[in-house]
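Journal club prep, shared notes

We agreed each person brings one worked example of a sequence with its structure written out as tokens. Mine is C2H2-type domain-containing protein. I'm keeping it raw so we can talk through how to read the token line rather than staring at a rendered picture. Sequence first:
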Amino acid sequence: MNDSNTVLFRCTECDHTTTDVASLHAHCEKHRGYTRFGIQIPFTRTSAGDFNALMEYTDVLRVEDTTKISLKDIDRLTDESGGEDE
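Then the structure, token by token:
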């Protein structure tokens, strides 16, 4: 099955993968820091994310083939990976 409309977003620092680019960028903030000095400060309405800088931490992967799996397979994959990432 070819599902060329589906993409995954992967963090280049730790391979965290998701289907939601906004979620990935929130994750990537912990790798890049919020200030030019690399100091992480709380994210507020006035501290807008830098999309271009966050894209440097983002691999975009197109799903070219899919395989149907059972719920047991999902449990096994989760156990092998040590649970879900943050």
